[in-house]
Design brief:
Keywords: Signal. By secondary structure, the protein is mainly α. It is built from 4 helices and 3 strands. A 3-stranded mixed sheet has the order 2-1-3.
Length: 157
């Protein structure tokens, strides 16, 4: 019987060792994940800008901070959106203004707020909501058929 006891103890030690290795491995993977840079909500529009995740969060932050909310509607596979995004991200003045003077949100889907699509659900579309939570219909681009469309050349002051 003494041999059986040693064998059971050996199996228990081996099982415990494997368990500890598995736990340490999972812990190491969790630590590595924490050290990784956080996913950005910028989607290429400006990594130094603080972005809100949802329209509702943007409205809350706008009211709380007394800053207007800028909502950028875009799609990844839209060439006009890509061109506007590049101009927006590369313009230091716009990046600084966006970070300091606005609550920023970029959306790749429509919101349930119909005030954000008064003349259609096209992209790119940039709209502003003031701190009183009113969509600013008076801030528009230069096209009468797509009021809230902006182009790269519109990014210059």
């Amino acid at each position: 019987f003494p041999c059986i006891g040693r064998e059971i103890m050996l199996h228990s030690t081996l099982a415990l060792s494997l368990l500890l290795i598995a736990v340490n491995s999972n812990l190491a993977m969790a630590i590595k994940k924490e050290k990784r840079a956080p996913q950005t909500l910028s989607r290429g529009w400006g990594d130094e800008i603080t972005w809100v995740q949802t329209y509702e969060e943007g409205l809350y932050q706008a009211k709380k901070s007394n800053k207007p909310l800028m909502v950028i509607h875009h799609l990844e596979d839209c060439q006009y959106c890509q061109a506007l995004k590049k101009a927006f991200a590369e313009n230091e003045e716009i990046q600084e203004m966006a970070q300091n003077n606005f609550i920023m949100l970029n959306l790749m889907h429509e919101t349930t707020d119909k005030n954000l699509s008064p003349d259609g659900q096209y992209v790119p579309r940039i709209m502003f909501v003031d701190p009183s939570l009113t969509v600013r219909a008076d801030i528009t681009g230069r096209y009468s058929n797509r009021l809230y469309t902006y182009e790269p050349q519109d990014m210059t002051f």
